[in-house]
Amino acid sequence: MWRHLPNLVTGVRILMVWPVFWLISHGEFKVALLLAAVAGVSDAVDGYLAKHFGWESRLGGLLDPLADKLLLLAGFTALTLIGSVPVWLFALVIGRDVVIVCGAIAYHNLIGPFDAQPSRLSKLTTVVQILLVLAELLRLAWFPQLPGQYPFILLAAALTVASGLHYVVVWSMRARQASHERREQESR
């Protein structure tokens, strides 16, 4: 029973997606920031429990990044809707994820199974995107008179584009190599 605790914590984090979106879109920035902080702590807790006690599972490996992505998407969507994040950045963030998912599906269907481990650049991109959402919530909650996070927005945009291109290049090269190896085996 205890071995499912990390997945339960992740499930609770997924349930926080709609409240985070609703709170931001309705101007409840302090509560949204608190809930986002709780989600961040729960992410650390479920990861610790899974690794420390050996309670890692395939389901958890799928749900954990999904929960993170859904929360990030909720934050970006709500902040874009209230005009705090530019639409073009929202489009870049969503576009990158669509390219990655479509590429993964294509690779899986055309080449075969793949190791979906995120690159360091991808992890950095996600961290910067999360920090941007949290910084903007912090600004909106306590310092609304300050200007937006434009330098941070530019950094998030640059990393989003770079990591998206990185995925395309790396997985295209892997697909080419796998295709080449398959042709060699068939010709023997």
From TrEMBL:
TM region(s), chain numbering:
31-49, 70-92, 126-144, 150-173
**Has the keyword Transmembrane helix been applied to this entry?**
yes
> Out of the domains of life, which is the source?
Bacteria
A Gene Ontology molecular-function term?
Answer: cardiolipin synthase (CMP-forming)
Q: Which GO terms describe its cellular component?
A: membrane
Q: What EC class is this? A: transferase
Q: How does this chain sit within the bilayer?
A: Multi-pass membrane protein
Compartments in which it is found: Membrane
Q: Name one GO biological process term.
A: cardiolipin biosynthetic process
Q: What is its EC number?
A: 2.7.8.5
Q: Which reaction is recorded as catalysed by this protein?
A: a CDP-1,2-diacyl-sn-glycerol + sn-glycerol 3-phosphate = a 1,2-diacyl-sn-glycero-3-phospho-(1'-sn-glycero-3'-phosphate) + CMP + H(+)
Q: Which UniProt keywords apply?
A: Lipid biosynthesis, Lipid metabolism, Membrane, Phospholipid biosynthesis, Phospholipid metabolism, Transferase, Transmembrane, Transmembrane helix
- To which pathway does this protein belong? Phospholipid metabolism; phosphatidylglycerol biosynthesis; phosphatidylglycerol from CDP-diacylglycerol: step 1/2
Gene3D superfamilies for the chain? 1.20.120.1760
For this chain, the family text in UniProt reads: Belongs to the CDP-alcohol phosphatidyltransferase class-I family.
This protein is called CDP-diacylglycerol--glycerol-3-phosphate 3-phosphatidyltransferase
Phylogenetic classification of the source organism: Bacteria, Pseudomonadati, Pseudomonadota, Gammaproteobacteria, Lysobacterales
